[in-house]
Amino acid sequence: MQFFDTHAHIGLIYDSPVEQFRVIQQAKQAGVTRIISINNSLHDFKKEYTVLKSMKGIYHAVGVGPSEVTAPGADWMNIIEESVKLPNVVAIGETGLDYLKQFGDKRSQIELFIAQLELAQKYSLPVIIHNRDAGNDIFDILKDRIPEKGAIFHCYSEDAAYANKCLDAGMNVYFSFAGNLTYRNARNLHDTVLNIPRDRILIETESPFMIPAEFREKKRTMPAYLVSTAKFLAEMLETDLESLAAQLWTNSCKIFQLPE
User: Fold this and answer.
1) Would you tell me the crossing angle of helices 45-52 and 76-83 to the nearest 10 degrees?
2) Within 13 Å, how many C-alpha atoms sit on residue 180's CB side?
3) Could you give the CA distance from residue 170 to residue 51 in angstroms, rounded to a whole number?
4) Rounded to whole angstroms, what are the CA distances from 205 to 46, 84, 156, 223?
5) Are 60 and 89 in contact (CB under 8 A)?
6) What is the four-CA torsion angle of 131, 136, 141, 146, rounded to 10 degrees?
7) pLDDT in tens, the chain (260 residues)
8) d(Cα 208, Cα 51) in Å, to the nearest integer?
């Protein structure tokens, strides 16, 4: 079996490249053989890419998150446009809207989000979406502007009705679940995975955040912990882990346009 971590902030787990390599090797030993590395900020992308570019199975997304809306840098768009030409850069993101922490103002967040959707369309890439308390606005924007190659709702936090509204609108969207899926009180997530097509489900660690229940005593999540979330999901869906792993692998490769 092999697993695909669709969202990990490797640079936030450890700052040391030696420790980052160790984390990746531990993940591979656990069966997590592909990881999408998410930049901590656009300003850190080049450093993180340079450190990890030689590691087999590591792919990259590049983007400006809502937390950077007040200071993305004057050349942020040029940085993204140059970065998407690099080997193994497979998505724009994470980008999106965050109304919980109220970064900047809503209008500025929306403009930044739309600009990156347009970049994803221009470069035929999927987009990785950050959504906190902004589901209605994100839906309204995506229904007219979703890139042809699709979108991933990372660390999905809405309910089944929202997911199915996106699908019913004809959107090419996937829903990625992190370690919080394993929490007993995450009923909206449990209901969602039971009521959406299995070919639209992804899993992620959101490392170093969202520690699965099995590892609650740990200080940070590692990509190797992805298998714990997969096991929980298999039990919920009443299927064997091997079959689920194969489905999740196919889903992940499809949305990121990678060979299986």
Assistant:
1) 20
2) 17
3) 39
4) 22, 23, 12, 6
5) yes
6) 60
7) 999 999 999 999 999 999 999 999 999 999 999 999 999 899 899 999 999 999 999 999 999 999 999 999 889 999 999 999 999 999 999 999 999 988 889 999 999 999 999 999 999 999 999 999 999 999 999 999 999 999 999 999 999 999 999 999 999 999 999 999 999 999 999 999 999 999 999 999 999 999 999 999 999 999 999 999 999 999 999 999 999 999 999 999 999 999 99
8) 18
**Amino acid at residue number 220:** R
pTM of the full predicted structure? 0.97
Residue with tokens 């998407």: 84
Q: Which residue has the tokens 């200080």?
A: 219
- 112's CB contacts (< 8 A; 6+ apart) are 64, 66, 69, 72, 95
Q: Which residue has the tokens 């064997």?
A: 240
Tokens encoding 163: 């997911």
Instruction: Give yes or no for a contact between 178 and 153, defined as CB atoms under 8 angstroms apart.
Output: no
